[in-house]
Amino acid sequence: MASRGGPRAVGTDGSDFQHRERVASHYQMSVALKSEIKKLIYTHVGIWLLLLAQMCVGHLKLLPHDQVAMPYQWEYPYLLSILPSLLGLLSFPRNNISYLVLSMISTGLFSVAPLIYGAMEMFPMAQQLYRHGKAYRFIFGFSAVSVMYLVVVVAAQVHGWQLYYSKKLLDSWFTSTQEKKKK
């Protein structure tokens, strides 16, 4: 074998050991998926902070109600959606499978379920806006229903991709665990 600064073994240029330098595919997959999930979590935190700001402004009456409407009922349980994201981040350093599974389950309960409820809660108001062109709640001049439906659509996509990548990451971690048990 060749040393860093010393002579190489006779009859080799050192390239015959490159096959040992490859990283196993499930480790590469784990790193890539963790990166994608972190981006989605940071996007979720941004959405969460916007909803929190809207709720604080609405309840503390920092702006008139014609500027920022009071929050819808679904927004209150959605505030708990920060917990699954934190569990997901906690699972990354040591590939903790139980934290990742808890994150996935609680994402369904605290993130996806409030979004579904919110879509149903706001549907009559969206229908009234579409049919009659009347909106009674506004956020900076835009109809609150339209703005909040946009938030629901974006958040649903973020959480959907987060669950998809988490499942792929979980599969990757199980692959590495099974390979360790074989040895």
Number of domains: 1
User: How would you characterize the largest beta sheet?
Assistant: 2 strands, antiparallel
Give the N-terminus to C-terminus distance in angstroms. 26 Å
Can you write the helix and strand succession as a string?
HHHHEEH
Subcellular location: Endoplasmic reticulum membrane
Keywords: Endoplasmic reticulum, Membrane, Transmembrane, Transmembrane helix
Transmembrane segments: 40-62, 99-118, 138-158
Pfam family, one: Jagunal
Write up this protein.
This protein is mostly helical and 183 residues long. 68% of the residues lie in helices and 2% in strands. It starts with 24 loop residues before the first helix and ends with a helix. Its main location: endoplasmic reticulum. Pfam families: Jagunal.
Q: Which structural traits does this protein have?
A:
single chain; two-stranded antiparallel sheet; 5 helices; transmembrane; endoplasmic reticulum; membrane; transmembrane helix
TL;DR?
This protein has 183 residues and is mainly alpha-helical. 68% of the residues lie in helices and 2% in strands. The protein has one domain (35-182).
